[in-house]
Design brief:
- Belongs to the Fur family.
- It comes from Plantactinospora solaniradicis.
- It holds the Pfam family Methyltransf_11.
- The chain has 15 helices and 14 strands.
- By secondary structure, the protein is an alpha/beta fold.
- It starts with 10 loop residues before the first helix and ends in a 9-residue tail after the last strand.
Length: 434
């Protein structure tokens, strides 16, 4: 078996722990899902599903439809399938388990979705991606208009132990949390293409184009004295946390000696003997809404007439969707949005209509990962600045570009023109420090 560096997570080894956590957090998942799932939801996506604890809770809240659970590691996916097989029997809601790694983008997730998701849940997953901002921006594209992204990150550290245990120095649990913070910082620093995100999760969701954004924090406490099963669960969780940090040298020698005694069932100081353990957790879920796209029918009809096109229903419906979008959208996305809105328009018709609107100058065509995507642009002549991280597009006045092209002419002797000029850059939201 290959041993990974101390600051890299071996997800295959985490499968058993994630299964235990999914079962122990069953009640919390149900509580959160009751607030998140709407009666009209028909398609939900759980990204970084672990052992499918929240997948099952979402499915229990839906009257019919489909929940897609996605994770990157085969052994974790096996654990998710086993958990679903044991717990789920309702044929009205299908649960599918698929392999997808958010660190590699959302193409695999998009392929698994028949249309935009009503609800996208992701817990403790995004922070394992080097560029968290780009990951959130990509996840929002998987939502339908009016869909919600629920991000479980943050909250307050759990409280399990008294401040003074009589073993080692007081404050043992707080120093363990400090060591975990140091581990987390190093883990983030070692991720491929890692980038800092110097603001909170709610601001990150807003910058990804979601609004409104809110946070719900749930206080989860078990009555004391804890039942034996709950005490053993607390001890097992602490042992898991300490074992993960042992190779890092982040826990002081004196604290390691204390933990060895406290976590040893054969030692008189074993934590499992104590009745003053607690289980107090505050967990935060940040929720953002993908805004509904609303454009005046009169406006789209006028634009079509001005371009010499008859304002048919299909043209008005297709033109409405790219209008006002900060990022180009594909024909598949347009088709999915129309289907979700109850419009019976075929994909071939959508492709044909988008081509005709682009030929008439009402839409601009972009290349997004080798696929044609469309955006509605303003009437004035302009070029485009495209963020190569999140895909956001800004319109640049032609006179500004003309001055730059003139400087190029003076320096190179070439006479460049601005027809079809798209400039790739990094937007302020993706790199606020620049």
């Amino acid at each position: 078996m290959t041993t990974l560096p101390a600051y890299q997570v071996d997800w295959a080894q985490q499968a058993g722990h994630l299964t235990t956590a999914a079962r122990e957090d069953h009640s919390w998942y149900l509580t959160v899902a009751r607030d998140l799932v709407r009666p009209t939801d028909r398609l939900a996506l759980d990204v970084g599903c672990g052992a499918a604890g929240m997948t099952l809770a979402i499915a229990r809240g839906m009257t019919c439809g489909r929940v897609i659970a996605a994770d990157s590691d085969p052994e974790i996916l096996d654990a998710a399938r086993a958990h679903v097989h044991t717990e789920w029997t309702d044929p009205r809601v299908a649960i599918d388990v698929v392999r997808a790694d958010l660190a590699n983008g959302v193409a695999a997730l998009r392929e698994a979705l028949p249309t935009g998701a009503d609800l996208l849940w992701t817990s403790a997953c995004v922070h394992h991606v080097g560029d968290q901002r780009a990951a959130l921006a990509a996840l929002t594209t998987l939502l339908r208009s009016g869909g919600r992204l629920a991000l479980a990150e943050g909250g307050l550290p759990a409280r399990r132990l008294p401040w003074d245990l009589g073993i080692g120095d007081p404050g043992l649990e707080m120093r363990l949390q400090a060591a975990e913070d140091a581990w987390f910082a190093r883990m983030r620093a070692d991720l491929p293409q890692t980038r800092r995100m110097p603001y909170g999760w709610t601001e990150a969701l807003r910058r990804a184009g979601l609004a409104p954004v809110t946070t719900r924090t749930t206080l989860w406490e078990k009555p004391v004295p804890l039942q034996r099963a709950d005490r053993l669960a607390v001890v097992a969780e602490l042992a898991h946390r300490v074992d993960r940090l042992r190779p890092t040298m982040l826990i002081q020698d004196g604290d390691l000696a204390a933990w060895r005694r406290l976590l040893d069932p054969d030692n008189v100081a074993w934590l499992g003997h104590r009745e003053d353990l607690s289980s107090l957790v505050a967990r935060s879920v940040h929720i953002g809404l993908r805004p509904q796209i609303v454009v005046s029918t009169d406006l789209t009809s006028a634009q079509l007439c001005t371009a010499g096109l008859k304002p048919t229903f299909q043209r008005r419906a297709v033109l409405t969707l790219p209008a006002g979008q900060p990022r180009p959208i594909t024909a598949q996305t347009v088709h999915a949005e129309l289907r979700h809105g109850g419009q019976r328009v075929g994909l071939t018709t959508v492709y044909r209509t988008l081509h005709s609107l682009a030929d008439a100058g009402l839409l601009h065509v972009f290349d997004v990962h080798g696929e044609r995507a469309y955006r509605h642009c303003g009437p004035k002549t302009h070029q485009h600045l495209i963020c190569d991280r999140c895909g956001q597009v800004a319109e640049c006045p032609s006179d500004m570009v003309a001055r730059w092209l003139l400087q190029l002419h003076h320096h190179t002797g070439f006479t460049p023109h601005s027809d079809g000029l798209d400039l790739y850059a990094i937007c302020q939201a993706c790199d606020p420090d620049r």
